[in-house]
Amino acid sequence: MIRVLLTRLGSLTAVMTSVSLIMYRFVDLTLGDPAYQILREQRQSPPSEREVNAFRAEHGFDEPFVVQYLLSDGSSESTDQTTDSRR
Predict the structure, then answer these.
(1) What was the pLDDT predicted at 75?
(2) Is the dihedral of CA 59, 56, 46, 49 positive or negative?
(3) What is this structure's pTM?
(4) Contact residues for 87 (Cβ-Cβ < 8 A; gap 6+)
(5) pLDDT per residue as tens digits for the range 8-42
(6) Within a 13 Å sphere around the CA of 25, how many CA atoms are in the beta-carbon half?
(7) Do the domain assignments include residue 82?
(8) H or E element: which one contains 32?
(9) Range of the domain at 1
(10) C-alpha to C-alpha distance for 73 and 70, rounded to whole angstroms
């Protein structure tokens, strides 16, 4: 009985982790470059490449996908996509 429970718990953990990774990547791909979008929203004009690169480095958007996923806290207080919910 314990073995079956542990097996199912392991399977559940694997499925939930996979779904979480897929959804995080899906949102990451559909929103485009968050650094560019946030800066454009703040300035109401297109930012320079230098500004975008500095913003990416400051907020961790220049890190690989897996690192961004592991550093994210998973919270999203709102659906406002101009806020940085990855840190």
Answers:
(1) 58
(2) positive
(3) 0.58
(4) 59, 60, 71, 72, 73
(5) 999 999 999 999 999 888 887 877 888 888 898 99
(6) 10
(7) no
(8) none
(9) 1-31
(10) 8
Q: Which amino acid is at 76?
A: S
Question: How far apart are the C-alpha atoms of 47 and 41, rounded to whole Å?
Answer: 10
Indicate if the pLDDT at residue 80 is higher than 50. Answer: no
Q: Are residues 36 and 66 in the same domain?
A: yes
Residue partners of 17: CB distance under 8 A and separation at least 6: none
Residues 25, 48, single domain; the answer is no
Helix, strand, coil shares, percent, the chain, to 5: 65, 0, 35
Q: pLDDT band for position 87 (50/70/90)?
A: very low
Q: Is residue 69 part of a domain?
A: yes
Q: Identify whether 79 is part of a domain.
A: no
